[in-house]
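> example.struct
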């Protein structure tokens, strides 16, 4: 999306829409979450809707579900590892 919706070096015509980029471990137990911004007008002109309200969740789900990986683009069997996991953990196991 960066190449299509980024307005690097250009003044935004709309509002800044934050998007998640990455989580990086910067020390034992210390994580850095990276964010970037897209111009809302660039996203709208591409057909995206911008939701400006905040939704607060005050309860946790009562059921647990096991996340699954999407089908492999190569057709090979794959299990969560490295780039398919959260902080290097298998996503199928609870925290």
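> example.seq
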């Amino acid at each position: 999306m960066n190449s299509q919706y980024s307005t690097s070096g250009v003044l935004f015509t709309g509002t800044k829409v934050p998007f998640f980029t990455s989580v990086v471990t910067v020390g034992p137990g210390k994580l850095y979450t990276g964010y970037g911004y897209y111009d809302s007008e660039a996203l709208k002109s591409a057909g995206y809707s911008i939701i400006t309200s905040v939704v607060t969740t005050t309860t946790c789900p009562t059921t647990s579900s096991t996340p699954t990986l999407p089908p492999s683009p190569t057709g090979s069997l794959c299990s969560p590892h490295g780039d398919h996991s959260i902080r290097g953990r298998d996503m199928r196991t609870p925290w």
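> remarks
Residues 1-52 form one domain.
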